[in-house]
Amino acid sequence: MKVLIIGGTGNISASVVPLLLDAGHEVVCLTRGNSGKPAEGALHMRGDRNDADWFVPTVRAAAFDAVIDFFAFTPEQGVVNLEAYRGIRRVIHVSTVTTLGEVFDWLPVTEDHPARPTTPYGEKKNELDQLYLRAHYNDGFPVTIIKPSTTYGRQRVIRQIGIDTRWITRIETRRPILVLGDGNAIHHLLHVDDAALAFGGVLRHENTIGQIYHLVNPSSTRWTEVHDTAMRILGQQVPKVGVPVETLFALDPDRFQMARRIFAHNLLFTAEKIRRDIPEFAPRITLENGLADAFDHLHRHGLVEEVPEGDWEDNIINAQRSAFIAAGRANHEPRIHH
Fold first, then answer.
1. NAD-dependent epimerase/dehydratase domain location, by residue (predicted)?
2. Got the DSSP string for 24-48?
3. Span 51-70, mean pLDDT?
């Protein structure tokens, strides 16, 4: 197949490109050219997909067999895409499980669960999903919607309070790390190389057209296991200091928005449907191996952030510890009765 990838250098797409090339596909990556080059062997098309006057005729003229779109976020983009992708036999739209919200009617969450997004990002993605599904049912638009949960790899590692590399430095320098509450919320972490298997496989199965799939690790984990695994890899054990997520959000809404909306909750999705319809999706990378490879890559490329003493995380942890000490003293003070 001649496959257009909108993206090709991002967290998941960088792993998809070499997989498709190895399978014999001709791969063209469309990017703005601001984040490096795609894998060797892929053709690189530079341009702005938001420039409809350029995007639509360029894509139509190239006569692609399939498109995998990692960067469609709004229904406005979707309207343009319906025109640009006309005549393409397979359209793989990358959505997100955040379209479903964080409060669920049943667990594990299946693909037919009502969508109740609570963030502007999730709301726009859901509107786009619905636009595509209407186009499929009304006009035969050959879309498959894939909704990843949290993915990680060499480009990014994730802890419970968010996406950064600071926690690597904190663990290595024996400094405590923040967690949300008791740190035991359930989550799915999927390595990007395993996520790529679904995109490689979906093009082989036409029965996936018109379907929605959760792209999640079939095995869930708890955030405390993620943090403990990282400590084991890095060879240091440090305290995990729990702070209520609402307290953190009140201190810094921008920094802790993702933690409050996503990582503080028990998120349990089923991978049964995607494993049934796309048998190539068979995750094999353990959390320990995936994090170890990511940490090594980040270190070798100088991508691990330095963390000065007395930074914002130190300040929050010290304040939390002081509050516990003060509360303990108060509990032991004699009560005065009037």
1. 3-213
2. T-EEEEEE-SSS----TTSEEEE--
3. 98
Query: Which pTM was predicted?
Result: 0.94
Q: How far is Cα 167 from Cα 307, in angstroms, rounded to an integer?
A: 9
Q: Token digits for 172?
A: 């290595």
Which amino acid would we find at residue 328?
G
Cα-flanking dihedrals φ and ψ of residue 237, to 5°? -110, 125
Calculate helix-pair angle for 75-84, 52-62, nearest 10 degrees: 40
CA distance 169 to 64: 45
Q: Which of 43, 46, 45 is nearest to 21 (CA)?
A: 43
Pairing verdict, β 150-152 and 143-148: unpaired
Please measure the distance between the N-terminal and C-terminal CA atoms of the chain and give it in whole angstroms.
Answer: 84
**Per-residue pLDDT for 326 more than 60?**
yes
Which residues, 6+ apart, have CB-to-CB distance to 310 below 8 Å? none
Tokens of 125: 């993605």
Rounded CA separation 111/100 (Å): 9
Q: What is the mean pLDDT of the chain?
A: 95
Residue 128 pLDDT class (50, 70, 90 cuts): very high
Helices (DSSP H) in the chain: which residue ranges? 13-22, 52-62, 75-84, 120-139, 166-172, 192-202, 223-234, 245-251, 253-258, 272-277, 287-300, 312-332
The per-residue pLDDT for range 189-230, each reduced to its tens digit, is 999 999 999 999 999 999 999 999 999 999 999 999 999 999
Q: Token pair of 244, please?
A: 């209520």
Instruction: Tell me how long the chain is.
Output: 338
Q: Give the model confidence (pLDDT) of 307-317 as tens digits.
A: 999 999 999 99
